[in-house]
């Protein structure tokens, strides 16, 4: 961005000043001739030495070579002119270094260009328009060289000789310099001023201006203002990243309903496409008690390859199905997740679900897998599950064996004792009556 602006600014310095020479009569053969230039703001005059014709001719030749990408030839002419610097006036010297700066910049040597343009403004009595354009160029080059305080100083000096309104572009560059200099309060003031001035002109602020404004407010820990900038960016540019960032800011501000509305709108527009954003959207659905939407989004994203069939994704999909009471769909997903897990915890959860839907054989096999795989958080509960499953299959001895094992764990001891007592009674009644119909 800076390169394009700076090049146009530097070229303006060269061509504008040369045209000024033609149309204002500064060209003269008398080295001591002067011209009065009046500043509109205070009516004071600045005496500007004349640019002699023979000096102008040499500079124009150098310009012609530079335009044809013949930098060495251009430098040869400028060096010859510089050798006669002692006989030149301040305006001629300023023009000489202006050409040096222009050529150095074209050669992508911004450090040398910077030094040359510094020589321009060091000369007394140059036209104010020339000084202003050079100061602006110096500010931009200083930004390129990460000399942010220098950029601020050049812009401030520019403002000091400016007779009219300060253009929003200048104010924005100053905001950039303050931001890079980590002076965020001042950066915020200037970027806000630049944006307001652009809008007051009936124009849309440049996207980069709003990006900087958002970044500054973020550094200042002002999330409400960050949100407001993002609302504007969504309206003006309608880019996926701005919708998602806006949703994130609503979440940070605790405005969950607005967050869901923004993210759903982004989803409907096809803006949520990468794995991270899809998973966050699914979590948002789950948080807002819409588990079926969560499950549908997860399942679709797994099917089209946006999400991988990882332990995390499968585990969460199974949870969404369970919350949506879609247990038949939850079971195969949880089985796939359990197979990827390094411990038996998911097999234990799956066994509990299978017990709940009265698939006792599957509950038993998955509970046993949980114990075999190990590292189960609550092994006592797994034995309770086995005890209940075997009880419902009327395999009382096996049921009591597992309940006895559950009794060994403090977390399940009380429950295990209660069920042992109950199942002992049921076992005796079943033996006496020869029939049993009670199920858990």
Topology:
Layout: H1 2-24, E1 27-28, E2 34-38, E3 45-49, E4 51-52, H2 53-67, H3 71-82, H4 90-106, H5 110-121, H6 128-144, H7 148-161, H8 168-180, H9 184-200, H10 207-219, H11 223-237, H12 240-252, H13 256-268, H14 275-287, H15 291-303, H16 311-323, H17 327-340, H18 345-356, H19 360-373, H20 379-392, H21 396-406, H22 413-433
Parallel strand pairs: 1-4
Antiparallel strand pairs: 2-3
Helix pairs in contact: 1-4, 1-6, 2-3, 2-4, 3-4, 4-5, 5-6, 6-7, 6-8, 7-8, 8-9, 9-10, 10-11, 11-12, 12-13, 14-15, 15-16, 16-17, 17-18, 18-19, 18-20, 19-20, 20-21, 21-22
Can you walk me through this structure?
With 440 residues, this protein is mostly helical. Among the domains are: 273-335, Serine Threonine Protein Phosphatase 5, Tetratricopeptide repeat, CATH 1.25.40; 341-432, Alpha Horseshoe (Serine Threonine Protein Phosphatase 5, Tetratricopeptide repeat), CATH 1.25.40.10. The chain has helices at 2-24, 53-67, 71-82, 90-106, 110-121, 128-144, 148-161, 168-180, 184-200, 207-219, 223-237, 240-252, 256-268, 275-287, 291-303, 311-323, 327-340, 345-356, 360-373, 379-392, 396-406, 413-433; strands at 27-28, 34-38, 45-49, 51-52. The strands form 2 sheets. Strands 1-4 form a two-stranded parallel sheet. Helix 8 (168-180) packs antiparallel against helix 9 (184-200).
Question: How do you describe this structure in short?
Answer:
With 440 residues, the protein is mainly alpha-helical.
Task: Give me some keywords for this one.
440 residues; Serine Threonine Protein Phosphatase 5, Tetratricopeptide repeat; two-stranded antiparallel ribbon; 4 strands; 3% strand; rod-shaped; disordered N terminus
């Amino acid at each position: 961005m800076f390169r394009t602006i700076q090049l146009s600014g530097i070229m303006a310095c060269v061509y504008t000043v040369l045209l000024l020479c033609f149309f204002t009569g500064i060209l003269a053969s008398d080295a001591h001739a002067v011209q009065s230039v009046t500043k509109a703001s205070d009516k004071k005059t600045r005496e500007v030495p004349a640019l002699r014709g023979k000096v102008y001719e040499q500079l124009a030749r150098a310009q012609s070579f530079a335009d044809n990408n013949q930098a060495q030839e251009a430098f040869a002419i400028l060096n010859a002119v510089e050798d006669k610097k002692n006989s030149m006036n301040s305006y001629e010297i300023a023009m000489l270094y202006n050409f040096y700066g222009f050529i150095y910049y074209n050669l992508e040597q911004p450090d040398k260009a910077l030094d040359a343009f510094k020589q321009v403004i060091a000369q007394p009595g140059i036209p104010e328009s020339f000084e202003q354009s050079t100061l602006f160029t110096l500010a931009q080059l200083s930004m390129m060289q990460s000399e942010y305080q220098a950029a601020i100083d050049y812009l401030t000096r520019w403002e000091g000789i400016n007779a009219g309104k300060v253009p929003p572009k200048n104010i924005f560059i100053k905001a950039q310099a303050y931001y890079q200099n980590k002076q965020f309060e001042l950066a915020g003031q200037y970027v806000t001023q630049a944006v307001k001035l652009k809008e007051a002109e009936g124009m849309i602020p440049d996207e980069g201006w709003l990006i900087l404004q958002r970044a500054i407010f973020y550094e200042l820990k002002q999330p409400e203002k960050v949100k407001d900038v993002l609302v504007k960016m969504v309206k003006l540019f309608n880019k996926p990243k701005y919708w998602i960032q806006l949703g994130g800011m609503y979440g940070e501000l605790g405005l969950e309903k607005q967050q869901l509305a923004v993210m759903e709108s982004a989803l409907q527009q096809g803006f949520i496409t990468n794995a991270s954003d899809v998973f966050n959207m699914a979590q948002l659905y789950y948080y807002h008690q819409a588990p079926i939407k969560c499950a549908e989004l997860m399942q679709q994203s797994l099917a089209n390859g946006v999400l991988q069939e990882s332990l995390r994704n499968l585990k969460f999909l199974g949870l969404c199905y369970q919350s949506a009471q879609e247990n038949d769909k939850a079971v195969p997903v949880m089985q796939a997740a359990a197979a990827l897990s390094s411990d038996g915890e998911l097999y234990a959860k799956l066994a509990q679900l299978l017990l709940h839907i009265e698939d006792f054989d599957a509950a038993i096999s998955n509970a046993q897998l949980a114990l075999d795989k190990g590292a189960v958080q609550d092994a006592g509960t797994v034995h309770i599950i086995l005890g209940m499953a075997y009880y419902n299959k009327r395999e009382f001895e096996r049921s009591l064996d597992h309940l006895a094992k559950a009794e060994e764990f403090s977390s399940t001891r009380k429950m295990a004792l209660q069920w042992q007592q109950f199942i002992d009674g049921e076992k005796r009644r079943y033996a006496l009556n020869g029939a049993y119909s009670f199920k858990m």
